[in-house]
DNA sequence: AGACTGACATACC
DNA sequence: CGGTATGCCAGTC
């Protein structure tokens, strides 16, 4: 069904680029697609997440270093993140500046 | 078909 | 810490 827009395509493409063991923020993704003010729109697109496991929205965190809204029922994925050493107990990112993946 | 409102996982003041 | 500003989407009228 691919009912996605060009904007979402960019968001998913950027999110998919996140390597394992790394995380990114909505702000970074928004900036990566050329709309640094669209962090919310990024979240909106990821929230739909038609590419569920393809687009690791669980690997995208808030700009504050918190894990983000995927905790809302998807917290099982958080375990995987912890396994990758990205998250810390309590749903916090381990040194965001150290794990943050920046699009270039 | 066109316009408005609500919702969303942020950012800024 | 709280309210306002911003961007995109979806549903509704």
Description:
The chain has 104 residues and is mainly alpha-helical. Helix content is 44%, strand content 8%. It is built from five helices and four strands. It has a two-stranded parallel ribbon with strand order 1-2. A two-stranded antiparallel sheet has the order 3-4. The mean pLDDT is 81. It binds a DNA duplex (13 and 13 nucleotides) through residues 5, 7-8, 25-27, 30, 35-48, 57, 60-64, 66-72.
What brief labels describe this structure?
DNA-binding; two-stranded parallel sheet; Arc Repressor Mutant, subunit A; 104 residues; 4 strands; mainly alpha; single chain; 5 helices; two-stranded antiparallel ribbon
Which regions contain 5 or more consecutive residues with pLDDT less than 50? none
The secondary-structure class comes to mainly alpha
Range of helix content: 40-55%
Beta-strand residue percentage: 5-15%
How many distinct beta strands?
A: 4
Tell me the name of the CATH class: Mainly Alpha
SSE succession: HEHHEHEEH
Mean pLDDT: 81
Which geometry do the CA atoms define? Answer: globular
From the alpha-carbon coordinates, what is the Rg to the nearest angstrom?
A: 13 Å
Topology, please?
Elements (H helix, E strand, L loop, with lengths): L5 H11 L7 E2 H7 L6 H10 L11 E2 L9 H14 L2 E2 L3 E2 L2 H4 L5
Parallel strand pairs: 1-2
Antiparallel strand pairs: 3-4
The protein binds a DNA duplex (13 and 13 nucleotides) through α2, α3 and β2.
Can you give me a brief rundown of this structure?
This protein is mainly alpha-helical.
């Amino acid at each position: 069904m691919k009912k996605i827009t060009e904007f979402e395509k960019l968001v998913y493409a950027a999110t998919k680029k996140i390597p394992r063991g790394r995380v990114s923020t909505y702000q970074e993704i928004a900036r990566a697609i050329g709309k640094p003010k669209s962090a919310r729109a990024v979240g909106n697109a990821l929230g739909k997440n038609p590419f569920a496991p393809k687009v690791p929205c669980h690997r995208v965190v808030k700009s504050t270093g918190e894990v983000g809204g995927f905790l809302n029922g998807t917290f099982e994925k958080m375990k995987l993140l912890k396994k990758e050493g990205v998250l810390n107990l309590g749903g916090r990112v381990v040194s965001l500046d150290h794990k943050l993946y920046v699009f270039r």
